[in-house]
Structures are given as C-alpha cells and as structure tokens.
Design a protein that fits this description.
The complex is a heterodimer of chains A (456) and B (313). Chain A has 456 residues and is α/β, with parallel strands linked by helices. Chain A has helices spanning 3-41, 56-72, 87-98, 110-113, 127-132, 142-147, 170-175, 191-203, 219-232, 249-264, 276-282, 295-300, 336-351, 354-357, 366-369, 372-375, 380-383, 404-417, 423-439; strands at 46-52, 76-82, 105-109, 122-123, 149-150, 153-154, 157-158, 160-169, 212-213, 287-291, 305-309, 319-322, 324-329, 362-363, 390-391. Chain B is mostly helical and 313 residues long. Classes of the chains: A alpha/beta (456), B mainly alpha (313).
C-alpha cells in the first residue's frame, strides 16, 4: 500500500476511536451532573439511588410501584435509573461497584448473584432492617430463599420468579376438542400425549400458521426449555462439592430428541423462529412457548388464551424459573439513613407486588399469591403453581440469565433442535462444556467453582 | 506545508551553515506545525497509544472487569487462546465474511462506477443513490435489512417468492450480513472508482478508437490497467475493514451471536470475553492476537506490492 493511500483509512479509524472516547467521557459527565442536580432539587431527607433493567410493561409497573412508595414515604426520595437489559447492565453494575460509584439499590437476576462476587461487588442485606420493614423468610418459597443465601448471608431479596409457559389459544383448542370442562387445556403427562395434542391442534389450525412457536433457534429459550425438561427427568449437573460433572447424557438425549421432534415433524416452522413465534400466536397459531412476560403482550392483543407451566411430559412437574431480585451493590461506606432507605424501598416493593403480577411475573412474596385480587388474575392463576416446581440452573458462578453457561451451552441445544447436530453428539458436547466451565476460574476471584465458597 | 513556509521566511534573514539551518528549520517547523497536530496527537495518544500499551500489559494478567487484584500470569492467556476453539471459530467467521465481501464489493463498486460514469442523464441522481447508504449509521442499515430479511413479512422473501430463513438459519445468517454490508458500504469504493475513472485521460480512448478498438477492448486494455492502483487501495481498505466486522452483524442478530454462533465475529468474541465473562486479561490477549494478524495481512500486502513494483521495473 502506498503511504499516502494508507492514511485515509487509518485516520478515519482514529477519528472514530477518538469520537467514541469523547462520547463515553461525555456520558460520564452528564451522569455526574444528573446526580448533583437531582440531589439539590429534592427536598427529601434521604435520597436512594436505584438501578433497574425494566423497560416496556415491566418498566411501567415498576414506576407505578415506586410512585406509590413515594406517596407513602415522603421523606425518601427515590432516584431510579433504567438501564438496558442483559449483559451491559451487569457490566455497568460491576464497574460501578468496583469504582465505588454504585447505586444504593439494584436489581439482578438471582442466578447471576453467585457469579457477581458477593462480598466484594455486593453487600449483604441486614436481616434486622428487613424484619423492621416486614420482610420475613417464611413468606418466601424456601428453595428460592436458599438460592439467595451465600456463605450464610442473604445477598438477594427476591421480587418475583419468572417462568417459561405454554401459551395456548382457547379458540383453536376448542375447535380441536382439546379444552376441558374448566376451559383449560386437557392435562398432558407424557411426550406421546403431547404430540397427540399437537397433531389434533394442527388439524384445527388456519393455513399458513405453524402449530407451535418455541424459539427453536434462540440460545436462551432453548437452554431454558432444556433446563425445564431435564429437571423433569430428575437430571443433575454437578456433585455438591462442584468437583465432578454429573450431567446425564442419556437423559439429555431424551430432552434433545423431544425438542427436535417439534421441528422435525413440522409443528414448529423453521421460518418462524424468534419473535415470529409470538406473532404467529397472535395471528392464530395454537401454541407458543414463551416467558411469562408475554402475558401483557397477548392481553393487549385481546386474545382468548390460557397459559400453563411447560407440560410435565416426563412425569414430574418443573418449568424453568429465574428471579428478579433486589441487591445492594457494594459501597465502601454503606450504612446510615440511605442504606435504611434502600432496605425500606425494597421491602415495600416486594410486599406490594400485586401490580408487578400484571406483567406476568409471579410475586415472590407468597402472601400476595393468596390474596383475592391475585386469584382473580387470568391467566396468572393458571400457572401460579410454578412457584412450587421451579427448574433452575445450577448454583455456580458461571450460571444465571444470559450468563456464561447459557452462552456456551445454549447454542449446542439449538444445534440439535434445528437438526444440524445429532442429539447424542450435542449431549456429549454439553457434558464436555460443563467440564470445561467447572475447571474455569471465576475471573472475579481467581477460584474455580469447587474452590469458591459461593455455593453455600 | 507549514514547514516550507517557515523555511522561506527563515532562509534570507540569516547566513548560516547547512547543518545549522536544518536544525532551525526542524525547530521552527515544530513550533508552527506542532501545535496544529497537537490536538490530534493528544487524542491519538490517549485513545490509541495508551489503550494499546495498557492492553498489552493486561494481556499478561488475569485482570477482571472490576479492575482490582490482577496477577501477572505470563503467557497463560495466549496459551489458552491458541487452544480456544471458540476463538478460532469466531476468527473463521470474520475471515469467511471478508472472503465474501471483498471480491463482491470490488466488482460491484467498479460496475456501478462505470455505469454512473457513462450515463449522461441525471448523473447526480445515480451518484447520490449509490453513495447515500454509506452515510447511514450501521445500526440503521442493519435494522432496515433485518426487516427486509424477516421471513414472514420481509420484502426479500416476498418479492422473490422465497421461503428462506435468512436470519435464523446458520447457513444464511452470515450471507444476510454480507448482503447488508454490500448495500451499505459499496458507496465508498464506488466513489474512489468514480474519481479514478474521471482521471483517465480522454485521449487514450480516442487513440484506441482510431486504432479500431471496440468498447470491450477499451475497457480491458485502458480502463482496467489505469485503475490498477485504485483497485489495490479498494481491496486493501476492504480487507482491513471487513476483518473488523462487528456492528451490523451484532445488530442484525439482536446483540446475540446468531444461530449456532454463526455470525459471532472475532471482535464480538473479544467483547464478550471482556464484558460478559469479565475476563479483561484474556480479552486483551485475544485482541493482541487479532492485532498481530491484521498487521500481518497489511504487511504482507505491502510486501507483495513492493515485489510487484520492483518486478515491473
């Protein structure tokens, strides 16, 4: 390349790099300004800064709950920031905690807490303060609470669980004779029964619509479905000491073959992956496996539909569950009125989660579930039992929503479901990936899962 | 330019030895020119040199995103990287993308430039049409094509009567990114070609015409040879840009790695290691490996070019 000729490209890149840097610097500047201005404007005694990842309908519900907290607690000023969901959120939270610029309160997926260096990036909850504001351990599902405890301390206060559901259209199922007298889908307890249901439903489905949308090419959803059905089979991941992989490839093959059959037998159309599954459902497809966060979407479309936990086709009931929970990002000087305000806010929202249920999530605070108001919610009342049948990822540092485990193993499940890998080969790859992850050191503390005290 | 003007001012005022005057020239040159390049140099040092050095240092540590407790681990990261199948996989995707994009974009840009050069009516409209997409931000271009490729409602399948799962099948996903990139960036190479075409002296064509060369011969024996240098530039720039593919692929797959990781590029893998897996040391090591690879490609090209020039002499 001639010298003069090489330059334009290089210059442009440098310019872009510099411009990017300025943007970043600029946004830090604005963030700094925002904090100061808000603190000045507020007349309240205590200001609690709170970071969350809720947008859309969830964001609307969260803001409504915050507003009602503000009405009830005029002495506390809540300054909430909504950040983008997914990995960027965790990166920002980690860097803020490491740089001692952390918010007073944050939200995380419970599965990610173990890998988030509790003790260094997260501070534990104060049980005395929580009790003062009405939070009691016995009001939560014991398994859920256990997952929030690390090294004997509570690091996460669960707000909800959110689960994978089998959504069905009552109008189509009625035509197919698949609705029971209670107006709900007929019970299914084996894979044969499930595919019989799909076969019947297909006959009643309008032309150009698939029978079921199950995100066959999405690594997160396919992984979540795998976790659900693998748990139904009683499969395990690692031994308690986290030294050995106990992953059962025979069970995994059963699950992978089950998922694959939906695509192979044409119930799920390969053209309608991703969001198209929900679009198809709105337009007349009888089934869609989706997260419970699709409830407001289908409500808004005014569909006549129901939603159950994923069918217990392998005998035992279990559907994938993650949980949004409140955390205290590490602050060097945590304490005092601000810290108490954070406890008070989190405790309030957890106990006033009726509004949150409108977003489809199942409130973690179980007394809410037995209120008359909640029992009237449809289809929430049809899948509330999922609280007692949670299938979760193993409690290790690399697990959790959109974490390393899902990123590594998810594509392997997809390769089998889409047919580009045989279930047997995919199951062996999953096992070897799990072994690699077990040997991997947590970058936050340089310890493997076996060495980490984080498994409690 | 500044140096020359300084030279002319300095020279008549003093009678000095040659060595002295060179020294004065150099100093004067910096005094005037230095301030002009200083803003650039400062940004360059802050955002290119410093991160590069810092990255090199971090690549020998087990640093994580929180920035504390990094230990020196020697060549461990590099050793792991060379054995990391996912890294090679991602590198393969970037290379595959480059292999598809570079020839296509070069040929397409040349054809479009010749078309725009020869069309008499509405010249400006053609130029605008071909160049305009290049002005779009990558996110806009990628989002637009995400819609066009939508299997159910997208225009591509509708117009061509296809049933192709463009974005959801691993055999098509990267192809979709390639098509998007062609449409989006061909305008830049097109512009380079157009300028070069206009620089070819008309008398060459006239002489050839007198000698009885037809249009095809004129293209083959005048246009293409005269464009050789600019083709070299277009290919070089495209290779360097394509190897660094990232944004359009990521946006088209909603920030995921695509079906079965098929659109996960090297840059994306580096980003994931650093900011999803929090392994800043490891991410630095693989980005240094990538830097070396890209530098090797650029050097290999320079070497080939020099050999050819020397051979031609």
């Amino acid at each position: 390349m001639g010298q003069g000729m090489g330059r334009p490209g290089l210059n442009r890149r440098h310019f872009l790099a510099a411009a990017g840097g300025l943007t970043v610097a600029g946004s830090f500047g604005f963030a700094g300004l925002g904090t100061g201005a808000d603190a000045l404007a507020s007349g309240a005694d205590t200001r609690v800064s709170y970071w969350n990842l809720f947008s859309g309908g969830d964001g609307y519900n969260m803001i409504a709950m915050l507003d009602s907290f503000r009405r009830d607690n005029p002495g506390i000023d809540v300054e909430d920031s909504t950040l983008q969901w997914g990995s960027p959120f965790y990166t920002k939270l980690a860097m803020a905690a490491a740089g001692n610029r952390a918010p007073d309160l944050g939200v995380m997926h419970l599965g990610r807490v173990t890998g988030f260096s509790p003790g260094r990036l997260l501070d534990p909850w104060d049980p005395v303060l929580l009790a003062k504001y009405g939070v009691r351990e016995e009001d939560f599902n014991p398994e859920l609470w256990k997952r929030a405890v690390i090294d004997g301390k509570l690091y996460a206060l669960p707000l909800d669980i959110h689960v994978q559901l089998c959504f069905y259209r009552k109008d189509v199922l009625k035509k197919a004779g698949l609705l029971g007298e209670d107006g709900r889908i007929v019970p299914v307890t084996s894979t044969e029964e499930w595919f019989d249901v799909l076969k019947e439903a297909r006959k009643a489905t309008a032309k150009g619509r698939q029978t079921i949308g199950l995100w066959h090419n999405d690594q997160n959803f396919q992984w979540w479905f795998f976790v659900a059905f693998y748990t139904q089979l009683g499969g395990t991941w690692f031994n308690d000491a986290r030294t050995d992989v106990t992953f059962d490839t025979d069970k995994a093959v059963q699950v992978l073959e089950f998922l694959r059959k939906h695509v192979a037998d044409g119930y799920a159309d390969p053209s309608f992956g991703g969001n198209a599954g929900a679009e198809q459902f709105v337009n007349g497809a009888p089934f869609a496996w989706e997260g419970n966060w699709s409830v407001p979407v289908f409500d808004a479309a005014k569909l006549d539909y129901g939603a159950t936990p994923l069918p217990p086709v392998f005998g035992r009931r279990a559907t994938h569950a993650e949980s949004h929970s409140f955390v205290l990002p590490h602050q060097a000087g945590r304490g005092g009125a601000t810290n108490e305000g954070a406890h008070r806010l989190a405790a309030y929202v957890v106990q006033h989660a009726r509004q949150w249920a409108a977003g489809g999530h199942i409130p973690a605070h179980t007394p809410t579930l037995s209120t008359a108001a909640y029992r009237k919610l449809r289809p929430q009342n049809e899948y509330v039992s999922a609280m007692d049948h949670q299938a979760t990822e193993p409690k290790v540092w690399f697990a959790g929503s959109t974490g390393i485990l899902a990123q590594r193993v998810g594509p392997v499940v997809v390769s089998s479901t889409t047919g580009s890998a045989k279930p047997g080969a995919a199951a062996r790859r999953m096992r070897s990936t799990l072994a690699e992850l077990l040997a991997m050191k947590n970058p936050m503390d340089g310890r493997t899962a076996a060495q980490g005290g984080a498994t409690a | 330019m500044t140096a020359t003007s300084a030279e002319t001012i300095v020279r008549p005022s003093r009678a000095t030895t040659a060595a002295d005057s060179a020294g004065v020239r150099r100093r004067q040159g910096f005094q005037h020119g230095g301030w002009f390049v200083a803003p650039f140099l400062a940004l360059f040092a802050l955002f290119v040199v410093w991160p590069l050095l810092r990255g090199l240092y971090l690549s020998f540590t087990d640093a994580n995103i929180s920035g504390d407790s990094a230990h020196f681990v020697g060549l461990d990261n590099y050793r792991e990287a060379l054995k990391d199948p996912l890294m090679w996989d991602a590198l393969g995707h970037s290379a595959y993308f480059t292999l598809l994009v570079v020839p296509c974009i070069t040929v397409l840009a040349l054809l479009l430039a010749m078309l725009a050069h020869h069309i008499e009516r509405g010249k400006w409209l053609w130029r605008l049409c071909f160049f305009l997409p290049f002005l779009l931000p990558s996110t806009v271009a990628a989002n637009l094509w995400q819609w066009l490729f939508n299997p159910g409602t997208g225009m591509i399948n509708h117009v061509f009567g296809l049933d192709t799962p463009w974005l959801t099948d691993k055999s098509y996903a990267m192809l979709a990114v390639v098509i998007t990139t062609l449409w989006w960036t061909v305008g830049f190479s097109f512009l380079l070609y157009l300028a070069a075409l206009q620089g070819i002296p008309a008398h060459l064509y006239e002489a050839a015409k007198l000698d009885g060369a037809n249009a095809w011969h004129r293209i083959l024996h005048i246009t293409l040879p005269m464009l050789r240098n600019i083709t070299g530039l277009v290919v070089a720039l495209q290779i360097l840009a394509s190897l660094q593919v990232f944004d359009q692929a990521v946006v088209m797959q909603d920030f995921g790695p695509g079906p079965e990781n098929s659109t996960r590029t090297f840059v994306q893998y580096t980003l994931e290691q650093g900011f999803t897996s929090y392994r800043v040391g490891y991410a630095s090591a693989i980005s240094i490996i990538f830097f070396v690879l890209i530098a090797a490609v650029a050097l290999a090209r320079m070497w080939l070019l020099r050999n050819r020039e020397e051979g031609g002499r």
